[in-house]
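Homework help board

Subject: predicted structure for assignment chain

Our instructor gave us this sequence and asked us to write out the predicted structure in C-alpha coordinate form, then describe one feature. I got the C-alpha coordinates but I'm not sure how to describe them. Can anyone check?
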Amino acid sequence: MASLAKKLTVLKQRKSNARKNRTKTSKTLRLAKLLYKKSVSGTNSIQHKMDNFRSELEDISTILQQKFAQRDSITSLIEQAENRLTSEKEKYDEIKEEISFATGEGKKQLEFTINTVSTEIEDLRSQLKSRKKTLEKVIDSIQEYDAKKTKLNKHIKKTLESKPQLVKVIKQSKKTVAKLEKKLPSLIQAEENVHKNISKVNSIIKEQVSKKKENQANIRKKKAREAKRKSAEDKRILSMAKKLAKKMLSEKKKAPKRKASKKKAPKRK
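My C-alpha coordinate output:
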Protein backbone atom coordinates (compact mmCIF):
# COMPACT_ATOMS: atom_id res chain seq x y z
CA MET A 1 0.00 0.00 0.00
CA ALA A 2 2.82 2.38 0.90
CA SER A 3 4.66 1.56 -2.32
CA LEU A 4 1.50 2.29 -4.33
CA ALA A 5 1.04 5.62 -2.56
CA LYS A 6 4.66 6.49 -3.36
CA LYS A 7 4.16 5.42 -6.98
CA LEU A 8 1.00 7.54 -7.15
CA THR A 9 2.93 10.58 -5.88
CA VAL A 10 5.60 10.04 -8.56
CA LEU A 11 2.94 9.67 -11.26
CA LYS A 12 1.17 12.85 -10.14
CA GLN A 13 4.47 14.72 -10.36
CA ARG A 14 5.02 13.29 -13.84
CA LYS A 15 1.52 14.34 -14.82
CA SER A 16 2.17 17.87 -13.54
CA ASN A 17 5.42 18.05 -15.53
CA ALA A 18 3.72 16.61 -18.63
CA ARG A 19 0.92 19.18 -18.34
CA LYS A 20 3.46 22.00 -17.99
CA ASN A 21 5.41 20.79 -21.03
CA ARG A 22 2.22 20.42 -23.08
CA THR A 23 0.93 23.85 -22.00
CA LYS A 24 4.28 25.49 -22.71
CA THR A 25 4.56 23.81 -26.11
CA SER A 26 0.97 24.76 -27.00
CA LYS A 27 1.64 28.38 -26.05
CA THR A 28 4.89 28.46 -28.02
CA LEU A 29 3.12 26.89 -31.01
CA ARG A 30 0.34 29.48 -30.81
CA LEU A 31 2.88 32.34 -30.68
CA ALA A 32 4.87 30.84 -33.56
CA LYS A 33 1.72 30.60 -35.68
CA LEU A 34 0.82 34.20 -34.79
CA LEU A 35 4.33 35.36 -35.69
CA TYR A 36 4.17 33.46 -38.97
CA LYS A 37 0.77 34.97 -39.76
CA LYS A 38 1.98 38.50 -38.93
CA SER A 39 5.16 38.03 -40.96
CA VAL A 40 3.23 36.77 -43.98
CA SER A 41 0.83 39.68 -43.57
CA GLY A 42 3.85 41.99 -43.32
CA THR A 43 5.38 40.66 -46.54
CA ASN A 44 2.03 40.98 -48.29
CA SER A 45 1.79 44.54 -47.03
CA ILE A 46 5.32 45.23 -48.27
CA GLN A 47 4.45 43.75 -51.65
CA HIS A 48 1.33 45.90 -51.78
CA LYS A 49 3.38 48.98 -50.87
CA MET A 50 6.01 48.09 -53.45
CA ASP A 51 3.35 47.76 -56.12
CA ASN A 52 1.96 51.17 -55.17
CA PHE A 53 5.46 52.68 -55.00
CA ARG A 54 6.39 51.29 -58.41
CA SER A 55 3.11 52.47 -59.91
CA GLU A 56 3.63 55.93 -58.41
CA LEU A 57 7.26 55.92 -59.52
CA GLU A 58 6.23 54.98 -63.01
CA ASP A 59 3.72 57.84 -63.06
CA ILE A 60 6.34 60.29 -61.78
CA SER A 61 8.87 59.07 -64.34
CA THR A 62 6.28 59.53 -67.11
CA ILE A 63 5.48 63.05 -65.88
CA LEU A 64 9.20 63.87 -65.65
CA GLN A 65 9.73 62.69 -69.20
CA GLN A 66 6.88 64.93 -70.29
CA LYS A 67 8.30 67.83 -68.29
CA PHE A 68 11.78 67.27 -69.71
CA ALA A 69 10.32 67.23 -73.23
CA GLN A 70 8.34 70.37 -72.42
CA ARG A 71 11.45 72.04 -71.02
CA ASP A 72 13.52 71.11 -74.05
CA SER A 73 10.75 72.33 -76.35
CA ILE A 74 10.39 75.66 -74.54
CA THR A 75 14.18 76.06 -74.40
CA SER A 76 14.34 75.46 -78.13
CA LEU A 77 11.55 77.98 -78.75
CA ILE A 78 13.33 80.51 -76.52
CA GLU A 79 16.56 80.01 -78.43
CA GLN A 80 14.74 80.43 -81.71
CA ALA A 81 12.98 83.56 -80.45
CA GLU A 82 16.24 84.99 -79.15
CA ASN A 83 17.90 84.32 -82.49
CA ARG A 84 14.99 85.93 -84.31
CA LEU A 85 15.09 88.85 -81.87
CA THR A 86 18.79 89.35 -82.51
CA SER A 87 18.16 89.17 -86.22
CA GLU A 88 15.25 91.61 -86.03
CA LYS A 89 17.32 94.03 -83.92
CA GLU A 90 20.09 93.92 -86.49
CA LYS A 91 17.51 94.44 -89.21
CA TYR A 92 16.01 97.34 -87.24
CA ASP A 93 19.42 98.97 -86.91
CA GLU A 94 20.14 98.55 -90.60
CA ILE A 95 16.79 100.04 -91.65
CA LYS A 96 17.21 102.90 -89.21
CA GLU A 97 20.57 103.66 -90.76
CA GLU A 98 19.09 103.46 -94.25
CA ILE A 99 16.25 105.83 -93.31
CA SER A 100 18.72 108.54 -92.49
CA PHE A 101 19.87 108.53 -96.14
CA ALA A 102 16.52 107.82 -97.80
CA THR A 103 14.04 110.31 -99.20
CA GLY A 104 10.55 110.37 -100.60
CA GLU A 105 8.72 107.12 -101.25
CA GLY A 106 11.72 104.99 -100.30
CA LYS A 107 11.87 106.63 -96.91
CA LYS A 108 8.18 106.00 -96.33
CA GLN A 109 8.62 102.36 -97.27
CA LEU A 110 11.56 102.00 -94.90
CA GLU A 111 9.62 103.70 -92.10
CA PHE A 112 6.74 101.23 -92.64
CA THR A 113 9.21 98.37 -92.61
CA ILE A 114 10.96 99.59 -89.46
CA ASN A 115 7.59 99.89 -87.70
CA THR A 116 6.78 96.31 -88.69
CA VAL A 117 10.19 95.16 -87.45
CA SER A 118 9.70 97.11 -84.24
CA THR A 119 6.34 95.41 -83.68
CA GLU A 120 7.95 92.04 -84.39
CA ILE A 121 10.70 92.83 -81.87
CA GLU A 122 8.15 93.70 -79.17
CA ASP A 123 6.18 90.58 -79.99
CA LEU A 124 9.34 88.45 -79.74
CA ARG A 125 10.24 90.09 -76.42
CA SER A 126 6.74 89.35 -75.12
CA GLN A 127 7.03 85.76 -76.31
CA LEU A 128 10.42 85.38 -74.66
CA LYS A 129 9.14 86.77 -71.38
CA SER A 130 6.15 84.45 -71.39
CA ARG A 131 8.19 81.40 -72.42
CA LYS A 132 10.83 82.07 -69.80
CA LYS A 133 8.15 82.24 -67.10
CA THR A 134 6.70 78.99 -68.42
CA LEU A 135 10.20 77.49 -68.45
CA GLU A 136 10.72 78.51 -64.84
CA LYS A 137 7.46 76.82 -63.86
CA VAL A 138 8.41 73.69 -65.78
CA ILE A 139 11.84 73.64 -64.12
CA ASP A 140 10.24 74.09 -60.67
CA SER A 141 7.83 71.26 -61.48
CA ILE A 142 10.75 69.07 -62.61
CA GLN A 143 12.56 69.75 -59.34
CA GLU A 144 9.40 68.97 -57.37
CA TYR A 145 8.79 65.67 -59.16
CA ASP A 146 12.48 64.83 -59.00
CA ALA A 147 12.36 65.34 -55.20
CA LYS A 148 9.28 63.09 -55.04
CA LYS A 149 11.12 60.50 -57.10
CA THR A 150 14.15 60.64 -54.78
CA LYS A 151 11.94 60.35 -51.69
CA LEU A 152 10.01 57.49 -53.25
CA ASN A 153 13.21 55.65 -54.12
CA LYS A 154 14.30 55.97 -50.48
CA HIS A 155 10.96 54.50 -49.35
CA ILE A 156 11.38 51.65 -51.82
CA LYS A 157 14.93 50.97 -50.60
CA LYS A 158 13.88 51.05 -46.93
CA THR A 159 10.89 48.81 -47.60
CA LEU A 160 13.00 46.33 -49.54
CA GLU A 161 15.52 46.22 -46.68
CA SER A 162 12.82 45.12 -44.22
CA LYS A 163 11.54 42.35 -46.49
CA PRO A 164 14.51 39.92 -46.12
CA GLN A 165 14.15 40.12 -42.32
CA LEU A 166 10.47 39.24 -42.56
CA VAL A 167 11.21 36.43 -45.00
CA LYS A 168 13.77 35.09 -42.51
CA VAL A 169 11.20 35.30 -39.69
CA ILE A 170 8.64 33.52 -41.89
CA LYS A 171 11.04 30.66 -42.60
CA GLN A 172 12.07 30.33 -38.95
CA SER A 173 8.51 30.54 -37.56
CA LYS A 174 7.27 28.07 -40.18
CA LYS A 175 10.05 25.68 -39.18
CA THR A 176 9.16 26.14 -35.49
CA VAL A 177 5.45 25.53 -36.16
CA ALA A 178 6.21 22.31 -38.04
CA LYS A 179 8.52 21.11 -35.26
CA LEU A 180 6.04 21.89 -32.45
CA GLU A 181 3.05 20.45 -34.35
CA LYS A 182 5.03 17.22 -34.64
CA LYS A 183 6.05 17.31 -30.96
CA LEU A 184 2.71 18.28 -29.39
CA PRO A 185 0.81 14.99 -30.05
CA SER A 186 3.52 12.98 -28.26
CA LEU A 187 3.31 15.32 -25.25
CA ILE A 188 -0.48 14.98 -25.20
CA GLN A 189 -0.14 11.18 -25.46
CA ALA A 190 2.44 11.16 -22.65
CA GLU A 191 0.09 13.16 -20.42
CA GLU A 192 -2.78 10.78 -21.25
CA ASN A 193 -0.59 7.75 -20.52
CA VAL A 194 0.37 9.14 -17.11
CA HIS A 195 -3.30 9.87 -16.43
CA LYS A 196 -4.20 6.27 -17.34
CA ASN A 197 -1.45 4.95 -15.06
CA ILE A 198 -2.75 7.15 -12.23
CA SER A 199 -6.24 5.79 -12.83
CA LYS A 200 -4.90 2.22 -12.71
CA VAL A 201 -3.00 2.84 -9.47
CA ASN A 202 -6.04 4.56 -7.96
CA SER A 203 -8.16 1.56 -8.98
CA ILE A 204 -5.66 -0.82 -7.35
CA ILE A 205 -5.53 1.30 -4.20
CA LYS A 206 -9.32 1.52 -4.15
CA GLU A 207 -9.55 -2.23 -4.61
CA GLN A 208 -7.02 -2.86 -1.84
CA VAL A 209 -8.83 -0.44 0.45
CA SER A 210 -12.08 -2.21 -0.36
CA LYS A 211 -10.49 -5.59 0.35
CA LYS A 212 -9.00 -4.26 3.56
CA LYS A 213 -12.40 -2.97 4.65
CA GLU A 214 -13.96 -6.28 3.65
CA ASN A 215 -11.30 -8.19 5.61
CA GLN A 216 -11.79 -5.94 8.60
CA ALA A 217 -15.55 -6.45 8.33
CA ASN A 218 -15.03 -10.21 8.11
CA ILE A 219 -12.74 -10.09 11.13
CA ARG A 220 -15.33 -8.09 13.04
CA LYS A 221 -18.02 -10.58 11.98
CA LYS A 222 -15.79 -13.48 12.98
CA LYS A 223 -15.09 -11.92 16.36
CA ALA A 224 -18.77 -11.21 16.77
CA ARG A 225 -19.61 -14.84 15.91
CA GLU A 226 -16.87 -16.04 18.22
CA ALA A 227 -18.10 -13.81 20.99
CA LYS A 228 -21.66 -14.97 20.35
CA ARG A 229 -20.55 -18.60 20.30
CA LYS A 230 -18.57 -18.10 23.50
CA SER A 231 -21.51 -16.35 25.11
CA ALA A 232 -23.78 -19.22 24.07
CA GLU A 233 -21.25 -21.73 25.41
CA ASP A 234 -20.98 -19.85 28.65
CA LYS A 235 -24.75 -19.80 28.89
CA ARG A 236 -24.92 -23.54 28.12
CA ILE A 237 -22.27 -24.30 30.74
CA LEU A 238 -24.02 -22.08 33.24
CA SER A 239 -27.30 -23.79 32.44
CA MET A 240 -25.73 -27.21 32.85
CA ALA A 241 -24.15 -26.10 36.12
CA LYS A 242 -27.51 -24.89 37.36
CA LYS A 243 -29.19 -28.12 36.31
CA LEU A 244 -26.46 -30.17 37.98
CA ALA A 245 -26.68 -28.16 41.15
CA LYS A 246 -30.43 -28.51 41.16
CA LYS A 247 -30.15 -32.25 40.57
CA MET A 248 -27.65 -32.63 43.38
CA LEU A 249 -29.87 -30.63 45.68
CA SER A 250 -32.84 -32.80 44.78
CA GLU A 251 -30.93 -36.04 45.36
CA LYS A 252 -29.76 -34.79 48.71
CA LYS A 253 -33.28 -34.12 49.80
CA LYS A 254 -34.44 -37.60 48.76
CA ALA A 255 -31.64 -39.50 50.64
CA PRO A 256 -32.85 -41.33 53.97
CA LYS A 257 -31.89 -39.79 57.24
CA ARG A 258 -29.70 -41.89 59.53
CA LYS A 259 -31.05 -42.64 63.12
CA ALA A 260 -28.93 -41.33 65.88
CA SER A 261 -27.23 -44.22 67.82
CA LYS A 262 -28.24 -44.56 71.51
CA LYS A 263 -25.45 -44.43 74.09
CA LYS A 264 -25.18 -47.39 76.50
CA ALA A 265 -25.60 -46.62 80.29
CA PRO A 266 -22.58 -47.42 82.37
CA LYS A 267 -22.87 -50.60 84.52
CA ARG A 268 -23.31 -50.24 88.24
CA LYS A 269 -20.81 -51.91 90.55
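Reply (TA_rk): Your C-alpha coordinates look well-formed. For the description, you could write something like this. Confidence is low (pLDDT under 50) at residues 259-265. That's the kind of observation they're looking for.
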